[in-house]
Amino acid sequence: MASSVRAGPRLRRAVASGELARLPAGLRAELEAALGSGGALVPFSLLRRLHGALREAGSPLYLHELLEGSEIALPEVPVPPRNPELVARLERIKARLANEEYRRMTRNVTGQELNRYGTLADFGRQVRSVKAVVITIFNFIVTVAAAFACTYLGSQYIFAEMAARILSAVIVASVVGLAELYVMVRTLEGDLGKL
């Protein structure tokens, strides 16, 4: 904590020129001794007595005017040496935090070769997706064709004319196709809803 002031030019000039002649001789001598020392440090206790003496003497000078340009002298705080165990522990903690940060930044990086379309795993997912779509379309076509063929062949026992047989086969194939489309849409909707 600060306990003294480094005297500025205004206070030095007031002591040297005799502006403080009305003050008691002991107080002036203490001020001159404090200013004559190498550091020119004036303790706060001396400044309090100077302030009281200026008031008692009715001096036109005020303490804040005399202290203009002065600085508070702060004592140097000695820095204790660092504990080597603490320094080693801090270094271990810093290294651990740096490793965790590195792992967090690189957790989604894979060792697979990247190309301009993404990783090989992405390519595999895309192939599986395309494969599922191709199988679904093939299944749809086979189901509709089988419904048409069964109805066409089965309707020969009901209808004698070829036009009626084809018309009934187209109607049944359309109904089966619409039902298959409905099931496909519901399946895709369920799969998309899970995403």
Task: Briefly summarize what is shown.
The protein is mainly α and 195 residues long. The chain contains seven helices and three strands.
Question: What are the defining features of this structure?
Answer:
195 residues, 7 helices, Transmembrane protein 199 isoform X1, single chain
Structural class: mainly alpha
How many helices does DSSP assign? Answer: 7
Task: Count up the domains.
Answer: 2
Q: How are helices and strands ordered from N to C?
A: EHHEHHEHHH
The geometry reads as rod-shaped
Q: Strand count, sense and closure of the main sheet?
A: 3 strands, antiparallel
Q: Major sheet: order of its strands? A: 2-1-3
User: What are the low-pLDDT stretches, counting only 5+ consecutive residues below 50?
Assistant: none
Radius of gyration: 50 Å
Rounded mean pLDDT is 83
- What's the helical proportion of residues? 55-70%
**End-to-end Cα distance:** 66 Å
The amount of beta strand, in percent, is under 5%
Number of strands: 3
Keywords: Endoplasmic reticulum, Membrane, Transmembrane, Transmembrane helix
Protein name: Transmembrane protein 199 isoform X1
Membrane topology: Multi-pass membrane protein
Subcellular location: Endoplasmic reticulum membrane
